[in-house]
Design goal:
Length: 195
């Protein structure tokens, strides 16, 4: 049986493309359902400390529309939507992605699912960011989290222990933080490193 492995994502900002992968310990048919079914996506897409998808609608066919809605940890509503371009259960799903936080630019997400033993090797490609390097980088980090949530959700069904990984991104208080530390900040960073 294939076990769950930690997801990985690489954002090639110069090409405007993200490539993410994860191994999941359930068959492609189950993974495909988890990434397309309206009753499944709200069960796993999100975390209370970031955002939570609360509603998903999907007409899973070429030309069909999809939309996810939810609430951020700050209480703000959000949505993302698109159209299915290719639907080949349980091996391939291609869809557009249009998010207000990305200026309503339209990008393309491709899921490829390959059977490996009794599990699935999922590859995700998100492309079309063009010169929006920050958006590409941020979406890359987001996809790594999303594939982690998906893997953890499906691992529970498969009786597999999901990898215990905590991801965080430290944001410095100012752009030149590393070069202009005060003595108090330097001491705090030292204590943090010792911990």
């Amino acid at each position: 049986m294939a076990g769950n492995e930690r997801p990985r994502a690489i954002a090639d900002v110069s090409a405007g493309t993200i490539l993410a992968t994860v191994t999941i310990a359930v068959p492609p048919e189950r993974v495909f359902r988890a990434i397309t079914a309206a009753d499944q996506i709200p069960l796993w897409w999100g975390a209370d400390n970031m955002y939570r998808t609360t509603k998903h609608t999907a007409d899973v066919r070429p030309g069909g529309a999809w939309r996810s809605e939810g609430k951020g940890a700050d209480g703000r509503d959000f949505h993302v939507q698109g159209e299915y371009l290719e639907v080949e259960p349980p091996h391939r799903l291609v869809m557009t992605w249009k998010a207000p936080w990305d200026g309503d630019n339209v990008t393309t997400v491709t899921y490829t699912l390959e059977a490996i033993g009794t599990g699935t090797w999922l590859t995700l490609r998100h492309e079309g960011f063009g010169p929006r390097h920050d958006s590409c980088r941020d979406h890359g980090q987001g996809w790594e989290r999303v594939l982690g949530w998906l893997g953890a959700f499906l691992a529970g069904e498969a009786g597999v222990k999901a990898p215990g990984v905590f991801h965080c991104r430290l944001i410095p208080p100012r752009p030149d933080f590393a070069f202009t530390l005060t003595e108090e900040e330097r001491a705090l960073m030292g204590r943090h490193a010792e911990y």
